[in-house]
Design goal:
Shape: globular
Number of strands: 0
Radius of gyration: 12 Å
Number of helices: 5
Low-confidence stretches: none
Largest sheet: none
Strand content: under 5%
Length: about 90
């Protein structure tokens, strides 16, 4: 599958998680960061999206420890939640 098709699929999956909070966090992360990803990062995100939303959000917010398989620059970027739009 080519890069553009993979990214389109990932965008859909990132924005259709099941809860508004997860959509904003995971979808917002995708929208803000995907343009800078290489193939390894895309593969990481594909695997990451298989996890449960509650776990992803807990890892990103620092409520639960991040599993070793997800630790690294991608998770550090996800933890910096400045990409989540907050209405004032």
């Amino acid at each position: 599958m080519d890069r553009e098709t993979r990214l389109k699929r990932l965008r859909f999956r990132a924005w259709h998680r099941g809860t508004k909070e997860a959509d904003l966090m995971i979808g917002g992360f995708f929208d803000r960061r995907h343009a800078e990803w290489n193939d390894e990062d895309i593969a990481w995100f594909e695997t990451f999206l298989e996890e449960q939303d509650v776990d992803i959000m807990a890892w990103a917010l620092g409520v639960q420890p991040v599993p070793i398989r997800y630790a690294g620059p991608m998770m550090a970027s996800l933890k910096n939640v400045n990409y989540v739009p907050i209405a004032e």
